[in-house]
Amino acid sequence: MRILLLSADHAGQEEYVLSQKERRYLMKVLRLAPGAAITARDRQGNYYEGILTEEGTVRLSPIHRPESSATDQLSGYRAKLPTIHLFQGLCKGRKNEDIARMACEAGVSGITFFTSAFCQQKELREHDAQRIESIMREAVQQSGSETAVCRPQVISFAKALEEAEGQILLLHQGVRTKGMLLDEAMAGLRKDCEISLFVGSEGGISEEECALAEDRGAWCCLMRTNILRAETAGIFALGALENCLGW
């Protein structure tokens, strides 16, 4: 289900003025004409039926069922997906953009990038952070995902562990405790639990960092598959978790 993600400064006004980029998205990409309806969502998670006007604005009316004003009949998941926050080790180049796009489309609740001992890239330039935020916004609008969109900040692995909520799953071989396969970990999770999924960068994470995660209560998990790249592993795990816990 495609949506219009309202800007962060929207405060419940009935008339929403479209930016040039938003107007182009509605009229050129979705091919909507004035008078057409579009589902809109603000940054607080409230949904609206929006009616496109000739003047380049959208008239908003609050709704409780987002699909009631859907612009298409494309496949859409109507029930709530598992609450999974992706903590991703910062990768090189544009891999971070690909990860952000795919994770948003998969429906994660949020994305946090972290640096670790083996990260080859230690920070995001402002230009790169802006691009990732824009890519996340486009992915949410295209997919209807409820992912929280914001300018990405890069924090340390230790800080990421402090911010993680619910059950922490770390895609890594355990160094203190016996590791488990991801499907074994899923069998021990409640359907309604919150998950913090940690995925390392190209070099993975160090044994010291793994021990720190285990001290925090993380379950170290391996996947029953081939060795996957950093930009693939998280998306593979997200799909497995959502398929297991979302049905």
UniProtKB/TrEMBL annotation:
<keyword id="KW-0949">S-adenosyl-L-methionine</keyword>
<dbReference type="InterPro" id="IPR046886">
    <property type="entry name" value="RsmE_MTase_dom"/>
</dbReference>
<keyword id="KW-0963">Cytoplasm</keyword>
<keyword id="KW-0489">Methyltransferase</keyword>
<dbReference type="GO" id="GO:0070475">
    <property type="term" value="P:rRNA base methylation"/>
</dbReference>
<protein>
    <recommendedName>
        <fullName>Ribosomal RNA small subunit methyltransferase E</fullName>
        <ecNumber>2.1.1.193</ecNumber>
    </recommendedName>
</protein>
<keyword id="KW-0808">Transferase</keyword>
<feature type="domain" description="Ribosomal RNA small subunit methyltransferase E methyltransferase">
    <location>
        <begin position="81"/>
        <end position="241"/>
    </location>
</feature>
<dbReference type="InterPro" id="IPR006700">
    <property type="entry name" value="RsmE"/>
</dbReference>
<comment type="function">
    <text>Specifically methylates the N3 position of the uracil ring of uridine 1498 (m3U1498) in 16S rRNA. Acts on the fully assembled 30S ribosomal subunit.</text>
</comment>
<dbReference type="Pfam" id="PF04452">
    <property type="entry name" value="Methyltrans_RNA"/>
</dbReference>
<dbReference type="GO" id="GO:0005737">
    <property type="term" value="C:cytoplasm"/>
</dbReference>
<comment type="similarity">
    <text>Belongs to the RNA methyltransferase RsmE family.</text>
</comment>
<dbReference type="InterPro" id="IPR029026">
    <property type="entry name" value="tRNA_m1G_MTases_N"/>
</dbReference>
<keyword id="KW-0698">rRNA processing</keyword>
<dbReference type="GO" id="GO:0070042">
    <property type="term" value="F:rRNA (uridine-N3-)-methyltransferase activity"/>
</dbReference>
<dbReference type="InterPro" id="IPR029028">
    <property type="entry name" value="Alpha/beta_knot_MTases"/>
</dbReference>
